[in-house]
Amino acid sequence: MKIKASNLLILIAILIYVLLKVAIATEFISEYLEQIILYTIIVIVVSLGLNLIYGYTGQFSLGHAAFYGIGAYSSAIICKILNIEDIYHFVPIIIISGVVSGFVGYLIGIPVLRLKDDFLAIATLGFGVLIRVFLDNSDRISDLLGGSRGFVGIPKITNLEITFFTVLILILLTINLINSRYGLFLKTIKSDELATSSLGIDVAKMKLLAFVSGCFLAGVGGSLYAHLYTFLHPSNFDILKSIDFLVIVIIGGMGSISGTVIASILWVGLIEGLRNFLPTEWMDFRWVIIPVLLIITMMLKPEGLFVKRSVR
Amino acid sequence: METTAYILQQIVNGIQLGSVYAIIALGYTMVYGVLRLINFAHGDVFMLGAFFVFYLINKFNFPLVTAVILTVCGTAIVAYLIEKIAYKPLRNAPKISLLITAVGVSLFLEYTLSLNIFFTPNYIAFPRPFEVKSYDFFVFSVTNIHIFIFLSTILSLLLLYFLIYKTKQGKAMRAISHDQQTAALMGINIDNIISFTFLIGGALAGLGGILYSIAYPQINVFMGVMPGIKSFVAAVLGGIGVIHGAVLGGFIIGLAEVFVSAFLSSTLRDGVIFLLLFIFLLLRPNGLFGKRIEKV
Predict the structure, then answer these.
(1) 3-state secondary structure at position A247
(2) How far apart are CA A43 and CA A25, in angstroms?
(3) Which of A29, A266, B24, B53 could form a disulfide with B231 if both were Cys (CB 3.0 to 4.6 A apart)?
């Protein structure tokens, strides 16, 4: 009997979930570790969004963290205003936050996706700075947002179930998208935009599809993040954060979902692990080592570490 | 009358800031011309310029002129080494790999130098290397720093013009920016010219760093990030690859920034500049002087 790949994936996922649940119930995993695990899952979904935009479609974005931030802030605002503190009302909020991010991505994507490569990079970087400036000044709009002091007092709702299953469903949906006709279109755009449009494929529309879906995933991740840590600060969504996700996508391999998952786990594990085992002075070395890693990866395996070299 | 004086004063300040942006933008636009790369590390070479001159003047007691010359040579060598070590192995790699490497180099320089064994992440006050003299013109005043910075920019623009349009090296640079492969077939040594471009770009960034740290007398390892990005925006505004475009773009950005700080709010200035970039990329993606009608 042959099991379908997606069924196998669900099986494995449920197994992991049960293991995690047991580990938490028996207090094998501390509350701190649980928080890190949830954060890892959030990082997976946000990186998956960037992988869709950059890894599959080849649209280089340096402003991914901005969409993550938009999701986080919109989720926090909605929950604050509507006084939502329970998990059942939270589910639609997650989707709405994703949609808000996706919608902003749509508005930005229409003009910006006309640009290519480095101009696209500088435009998305500019958008990232714009959002950062907006968030820093957000207390002028409403005191609730906190501006550069940060958004405080967000209800803690995110738990293992909601994070795990939301992300699982989104990963399955992404896999479906990638394996569909549209996924193929995205990959052809990455290999050759001109040839793709000559086949009668609407390149602009397909790019927008990838961009909006990627922003949606980032927004969902942001929403989960906001209600996990209950505190948001504009500096959590700046360019360095965008580079975090970029590193994950690059190291995990462009256009590889399993690679993104592994790289996210390694990334968060590495950073949080180092925080626990090394003295604080060593933490300063983090951003010395990461760029070197990035440069070496680019020189030796520009397609990513966990991916087989694609046929050119 | 009050407001006119205030506006005139802001224009003077804007030109000062714009001059620095213009000088950095020149380096960006040259490197982009030959390599088609946004050299993100350019802002960090600018930062190194500020640090070099600071250490030379305040720790080793060099006179200003010697310190400036040594700094400019130093940053030129740094830019040269960056190209040789990080960018050259990727000459035939996809463009994006090069861009990511540039981001990596930039982060590496910033965070390595922010370690406590090097420059530390703190702000360091930079005492002015010469006396500030102020000259009053009717309603606004101009300091010798304003003049020094403005003249340095104009002088480097003229020198660069001479270099690019009157020398053989400049001709080769223009040829490469037109078509790298054909240029190579015409017997131009691409690698040498690219290295040469990085030397000039590094020298300009170093000079920019010196001017910036004299105008705004404090230095920090992350000081190059925002001026770097804004100068690139300036280069895009003027039409990337166009020398006088970069200078004009620099002045536009400098004036915009000063005016937003003066009349709106200083926290909004970065936002306004990137809004400007957005508008430009949409309406005139080739910039003010960009000639190439390319479908972007």
Answers:
(1) helix
(2) 24
(3) B24
In chain B, what residues touch A246 (CB-CB under 8 Å)? Answer: 100
CA distances from B237 to A129, A154, B72, B274 (A): 17, 41, 26, 11
Using CA coordinates, name the residue in chain A closest to B296.
A115
Structure tokens at A255: 């256009």
Which whole-number Å values give the CA distances from B33 to A150, B30, B84, B174, B242, in the listed order?
Answer: 42, 5, 18, 8, 8
In whole angstroms, how far apart are CA A231 and each of A69, A89, B28? 12, 20, 39
> Cβ separation of B94 and A137 shorter than 8 Å?
no
Q: Which residues pair with B129 in a beta bridge?
A: none
Instruction: Tell the burial category of A128 from Cβ atoms under 10 Å away from its Cβ (0-12, 13-18, 19+).
Output: buried
Rounded Cα gap, residues A275 and B179, in angstroms: 49
For A121, the closest of B97, B99, B270 (CB atoms) is B99
Task: Quote ipTM for the complex.
Answer: 0.82
Chain B, 21-50: which have a CB under 8 Å from a chain A CB?
36-38
Interface A–B counts its CB contacts (< 8 A) at 119
How far is C-alpha B42 from the chain's CA centre? Answer: 7
- HSE value, Cβ hemisphere, 13 Å, CA-based, for B67: 22
Name which of A67-81, B49-63, B234-248 the model is least confident about.
B234-248
Percent of chain A with pLDDT over 70: 95
For B:256-275, CB contacts with A below 8 A are: 265, 267-268, 270-271, 274-275
